[in-house]
Design a protein that fits this description.
InterPro entries: HEPN_dom, UPF0332_toxin
Number of domains: 1
Strand content: under 5%
Number of helices: 5
Family: Belongs to the UPF0332 family.
Pfam families: HEPN
Radius of gyration: 14 Å
Oligomer: single chain
Distance between the termini: 10 Å
Number of strands: 0
Order of helices and strands: HHHHH
Shape: globular
CATH superfamily: Nucleotidyltransferases  domain 2
Length: 128
């Protein structure tokens, strides 16, 4: 197996693992931590997608921007998925670094439910 393929597979496995962690945290009402893990689940999948297409990034913001530029603006992937990923990006920052801020179940519940759909869409564009 070549290095690129191994790296893509690794990122997809990390994506799956992060969603499993998010589910455990969600079931234990740890809303901020759930947001963190669902963001990372999506982030790892998007990184795998970018790797598949030889798009290099070094920051989270770079991943978001390159995803938008190469897949959302070109309409390869629908805008709703770009908005969803950007929302998770913003929420992860707010939940991890915002002072005196806690997410609620009402905010987190629809997001965690949408992650499998997002991941399925991303995986449609990855051939390994």
């Amino acid at each position: 197996m070549d290095n690129k393929k191994a790296h893509i597979i690794y990122r997809l496995e990390r994506s799956k693992e992060a969603l499993e962690e998010a589910t455990i945290l969600y079931n234990n009402k740890k809303w901020n931590a759930t947001i963190n893990r669902i963001y990372y689940s999506c982030f790892y999948a998007v990184v795998a997608l970018l790797l598949q297409h030889n798009i290099k990034t070094t920051t989270h913001d770079g991943v978001r921007n390159q995803f938008g530029f190469h897949f959302i603006k070109t309409k390869k992937i629908e805008k709703e998925y770009g908005r969803f990923f950007s929302l998770l990006f913003d929420y992860r920052l707010k939940g991890d670094y915002g002072d005196m801020f806690d997410f609620t179940e009402e905010q987190v519940s629809p997001l965690i439910k949408k992650v499998p759909e997002f991941l399925a869409e991303i995986k449609k564009h990855i051939q390994i």
